[in-house]
Amino acid sequence: MAAAEKQSTQEQHLERGFVDEAYRDEAFPRIATTETPEIDHLSSTSESDLPQVSISKRAGTISKAKAKRARKEHHKTASAQAAASAGLRPAQDVMHRIRHDAHLRMSDYVVGYRDRHVGIMEKAVESWSLEGVEEEEFIPFHRVVYFRRISDDHVVWDREKRIDEIFWSGVSAKTEESNGE
Questions:
Q1: Cβ neighbours of residue 25 closer than 8 Å, sequence gap 6 or more
Q2: pLDDT by 10s per residue, the chain, length 181
Q3: Would 169 disulfide with which of 40, 89, 159, 177, CB 3.0-4.6 Å?
């Protein structure tokens, strides 16, 4: 790829927002820039006194330490966004919460699960087996589709619709946040 084509491709990526501006100069160095490191100072061994290596860029001078901090901050925000949209708590967590939370009556809930031969079936949480795979009545948690409260016939956790009113994760968490604002 010719140098002019490479530069125009890089500029297109920047314009379309494919690259975060915080570290764009590090990720897409301009062809016309000079990349000659200059040592600003040498000092003692403390972290703040480490030698700063600067790279002259078209937009000015940026130190490697600043670029590193910007990349680190970008990854922090990206991981925070991923955690916020991480999604639904697993069915096993919901089962344990219903079984062990004093505020929830275990006898008031049923589990909807996908049977391989019949389709969707329901079973009371009390009779759900958490024991080993050798038992005949054992049903793996990846087959659980929903948890339903019997008293008001309300689905409190649904894998397909991503509803979780036990831990308030998934879509339920986002709607709760928007209602609170």
A1: 57, 59, 62, 67
A2: 566 665 666 666 656 655 555 555 555 555 444 444 444 444 444 555 555 555 544 555 667 777 777 777 766 555 445 545 558 999 999 999 999 999 999 999 999 999 999 999 999 999 988 776 666 778 899 999 999 999 999 999 999 999 999 998 888 766 666 665 5
A3: 89
